User: Fold folate gamma-glutamyl hydrolase from Silurus meridionalis.
Amino acid sequence: MCRLVLACAVFAAWVCGFLGPASCGVYYNDRPVIGVLAQENLESDHDAKGSSYIAASYVKFLESAGARVVPIRINETEEEYRKLFYSINGLLLPGGDVDIEASQFTRVAKIFYELALKANDAADYFPIWGTCQGFQQLTVLTSNKNLLTLTDTKSVALPLNFGPGAQNSRMFKNIPKDLLHSLSSENITSNFHSWSLSIQNFTRNAKIKRFYKILTTNTDGKKEFVSTMEAYRYPFYAVQWHPEKSPFEWIDKPGMVHAMSAIRASFYTASFFVSEAMKSQHRFPTQADEEKALIYNYIPVFKGVNSIFIQNYYFD
Ligand SMILES: *[C@@H]1O[C@H](CO)[C@@H](O)[C@H](O)[C@H]1NC(C)=O
Ligand SMILES: *[C@@H]1O[C@H](CO)[C@@H](O)[C@H](O)[C@H]1NC(C)=O
Ligand SMILES: *[C@@H]1O[C@H](CO)[C@@H](O)[C@H](O)[C@H]1NC(C)=O
Assistant:
């Protein structure tokens, strides 16, 4: 529509100035590219090649909502990450099983987290999504402390308890009523975690409490924990549950759900996060750079239906 970038920018500034900041979001980048952070291979993974992996379900999750994915490998230099940061429109920190204080995964997550804080402070919109381990990683990055506690939530599907913060949250304010009803009454969110952020520790830690708003909670019967949160002042979102599993993972065990409502919840969250990434104007310097970075350059490995991840990407 707007061929001249400058004319577009001037027009956007004029519309924003005229109608107020609420209208600024209409200038969507409809070709978003989202980085998914790789992590150290599991020792128990006999198909593993190289040193790191990304479960393909996280890639499909984002692709299902209109984004393309770039893998972020864990052994690159800070300078390379900085360059990548200004080329992509968001970051997804996936689930997994690494040390969230001392891994390479953590080193890279911290670099992007700090770049994202700085960018957002300068009105350069850059969203982050954390799932499960990604949620936990964000709590460590924000508080500089591991506040997690063990819970009995290793393989169980739960309904979400929506708190008062959910209603006017960015993540849930536009959720269809019937989907909200399903999420709050059916056992459709997959929990595969041993560690959780208890409401007690959330409330006692000033840094966490000031930074994030609790949207939903859950309990293992003994401890109540945060299951969904979003940052007040940053487009950072975290779910302790796994929206990507329902449509894209097929291991048959307790906690796995393929109900239509679970799949709708997956697409709702993916679509929400991708719409956030569409507000970022970052781009690769050239189309060739973009092509070289995209995940299409890698071939996922089929690990079988009894694997916790049905397909993985592996990286040197
Ligand atoms: C990361 O690993 C790859 C493959 O082993 C290697 O080619 C590359 O130089 C490494 N990069 C850094 C920054 O260590
Ligand atoms: C609170 O966090 C500490 C670590 O800072 C942890 O040892 C403790 O188990 C946590 N307690 C609860 C109830 O979450
Ligand atoms: C949901 O899960 C809980 C705890 O596992 C169980 O007690 C309850 O019966 C389940 N509800 C449904 C509708 O399956």
Observations:
- The first helix runs from residue 5 to 19.
- Confidence is low (pLDDT under 50) at residues 17-23.
- The chain is about 35% helix and 20% strand.
